[in-house]
Amino acid sequence: MLRDILHDAITSQTDLAVIDQAGEDEDLFATLSRAEPDVVVLELGEHGSRGEIAELLRRHPRATVLGVSPDGREAMLYALRPNVDFLYDTSPRGLLDAVRAALSAAPTTG
């Protein structure tokens, strides 16, 4: 249920390109090869292993990964930088604020 609320909150933002891969069976990297998202939502433990997230960020350095635990009680924001931010406010508004803060801090290319 929380995943659905989160999905609705993030995908309703017209200025964010979002891939919600939580609970999906499709290959994550195949999905990403078709798009350059701002945000990738993963269910931790399902698609959200540390190795897979590291590879995702290596291939798509501008993406931000929002990992959500299956029970919705924990969320982590990953970006290509030397740390992981643990998120204590997992409300839709708190997660959106965290994603926007990460996007504004992300380096730009070009």
Q: What is the alpha-carbon Rg in Å? A: 13 Å
Question: Biggest β-sheet: count, sense, barrel?
Answer: 5 strands, mixed
Strands ordered across the widest β-sheet: 1-2-3-4-5
> Helical content, roughly?
25-40%
**SSE run:** HEHEHEEEH
Share in β-strands: 15-25%
Low-confidence stretches: none
Number of domains: 1
Distance between the termini: 39 Å
Question: What shape does the CA trace take?
Answer: globular
Summed over residues and divided by their number, the pLDDT gives a mean of 77
Number of helices: 4
**What is the structural class?**
alpha/beta
Count of strand segments? 5
Short description:
This protein has 110 residues and is an alpha/beta fold. The chain has helices at residues 2-11, 28-33, 50-59, 92-105; strands at 18-20, 39-43, 64-68, 75-78, 84-87. The protein is built from four helices and five strands, in the order H-E-H-E-H-E-E-E-H.
Plain-language structure description:
- It is a single chain.
- With 110 residues, the chain is an alpha/beta fold.
- The chain has one domain.
- Helices cover 36% and strands 19% of the residues.
- It contains four helices and five strands.
- The chain has helices spanning 2-11, 28-33, 50-59, 92-105, and strands at 18-20, 39-43, 64-68, 75-78, 84-87.
- Strands 1-2-3-4-5 form a five-stranded mixed β-sheet, with helices on one face.
- The N and C termini lie far apart (39 Å).
- The mean pLDDT is 77.
Give a topology summary.
Layout lengths: L1 H10 L6 E3 L7 H6 L5 E5 L6 H10 L4 E5 L6 E4 L5 E4 L4 H14 L5
Helix pairs in contact: 1-4
